[in-house]
Specification:
By secondary structure, this protein is mainly α. The chain contains four helices and two strands; from the N terminus they run ααββαα. A two-stranded antiparallel ribbon has the order 1-2. It starts with a helix and ends with a helix.
Length: about 100
């Protein structure tokens, strides 16, 4: 979990809390790596189903919202979003160096 916290730039206590909540909800399970002290985490079938359900809801909402905007505005929005994400990624990479 320390690796996850480092990669995401989060406090380890935040990652621990979220992972423990997912374990408690039956969305994840854990096992020891080769009998060592580290845990390896795997999603459960319930975790997979919850992810797919939530992703479907989110993607459906995006599709509905873009449809409401009309083709021209949706295309402009997506183009600007792509430009923003490229610039944002470069800025984050520069800040990390």
């Amino acid at each position: 979990m320390r690796e996850v916290a480092d990669v995401l730039g989060l406090e380890q206590s935040t990652v621990n809390r979220q992972v423990n909540a997912a374990l408690g909800a039956g969305l994840l399970e854990r096992s020891r790596r080769g009998g060592g002290p580290s845990y390896q985490f795997h999603r459960t079938e319930a975790g997979r189903e919850a992810f797919e359900r939530d992703a479907s809801i989110s993607l459906g909402a995006y599709e509905t919202a873009l449809g409401e905007m009309g083709d021209d505005d949706a295309e402009a929005f997506l183009s600007l979003t792509a430009r923003f994400l490229r610039a944002f990624t470069l800025a984050v990479d520069d800040a990390a160096r």
